[in-house]
């Protein structure tokens, strides 16, 4: 019953460094998502993936890169971290899209990232 | 763009009270609506999912209703307990794949 895990849970980095946040789910869910949560903005979608090797941009994709070579993993990379990317990052997964068939999303515990 | 609004932003009630949290959305053409709970420093936990064809869903002391035509949903919590203290978020599908969240209602239940 591992569910969905994220690593690291906390990360401090410096401006300009590359950072990769990991997400792993054990349900073989097709859909995976990355959100960031900021005071005043709530949760915003960064990227999502409908299946292995299929990814697409969300509301705030600039400065981020994703990949999905395996169904269970969906890493998020900040290519050159900026202070505005200080945030809490949540990974989520669902068996189907949240659209027509109304499948709930399951969230990981989050990664708290501080960019100095 | 779908806008989701939650009122109030914060709420404090004494233990035992029944309470209602509100969620409104601008585009009524939704497939479903979900309510989540978020504890401080934690991830989100799904509480209830209401399909567009349903008017309400119940889980224990929680009851969520959906009125698509008016663009509103309510989360009713009966006999509140200190353990119910958390932030409650509602979310609707955005363009069929991800979720569009409200900013949440922060609930404090005092003993």
Q: Could you list the spans of chain B in which at least 5 consecutive residues all have pLDDT below 50?
A: none
Query: What's the helix count of chain B?
Result: 0
Radius of gyration of chain B: 13 Å
Mean pLDDT across every amino acid position of chain A: 91
Write the layout of secondary structure elements.
The complex is a heterodimer of chains A (about 120) and B (about 110).
Chain A: E1 4-7, E2 10-13, E3 19-25, E4 31-38, E5 42-51, E6 54-57, E7 64-66, E8 76-78, E9 87-94, E10 106-107, E11 111-115
Parallel strand pairs in A: 2-11
Antiparallel strand pairs in A: 1-3, 3-8, 4-5, 4-9, 5-6, 7-8, 9-10, 9-11
Chain B: E1 4-7, E2 10-14, E3 19-25, E4 32-38, E5 44-51, E6 56-59, E7 62-67, E8 72-77, E9 86-94, E10 98-101, E11 105-110
Parallel strand pairs in B: 2-11
Antiparallel strand pairs in B: 1-3, 3-8, 4-5, 4-9, 6-7, 7-8, 9-10, 9-11
Label this structure with key terms.
heterodimer; A: 116 residues; mainly beta; 4-stranded antiparallel β-sheet; 11 strands; B: 111 residues; 6-stranded mixed β-sheet; 5-stranded antiparallel β-sheet; globular
């Amino acid at each position: 019953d591992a569910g969905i895990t994220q690593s690291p849970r906390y990360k401090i980095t410096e401006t300009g460094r590359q950072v990769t946040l990991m997400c792993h789910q054990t349900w073989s869910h097709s859909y995976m998502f990355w959100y960031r949560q900021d005071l005043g903005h709530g949760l915003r979608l960064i990227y999502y993936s409908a299946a292995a090797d299929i990814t697409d941009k969300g509301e705030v994709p600039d400065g981020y890169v994703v990949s999905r070579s395996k169904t269970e993993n969906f890493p998020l990379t900040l290519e050159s971290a900026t202070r505005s990317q200080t945030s809490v990052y949540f990974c989520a997964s669902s068996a189907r899209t949240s659209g027509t068939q109304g499948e709930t999303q399951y969230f990981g515990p989050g990664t708290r990232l501080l960019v100095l | 763009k779908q806008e989701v609004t939650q009122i109030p932003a914060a709420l404090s009630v004494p233990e035992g009270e029944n309470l209602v949290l509100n969620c409104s959305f601008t585009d009524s053409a939704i497939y479903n609506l979900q309510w989540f709970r978020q504890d401080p420093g934690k991830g989100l936990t799904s509480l209830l999912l209401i399909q567009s064809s349903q008017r309400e869903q119940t889980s224990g002391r929680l009851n969520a209703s959906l009125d698509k035509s008016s663009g509103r949903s309510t989360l009713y919590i009966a006999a509140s307990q200190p353990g119910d203290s958390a932030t409650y978020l509602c979310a609707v599908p955005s363009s069929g794949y991800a979720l569009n969240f409200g900013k949440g209602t922060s609930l404090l239940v005092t003993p």
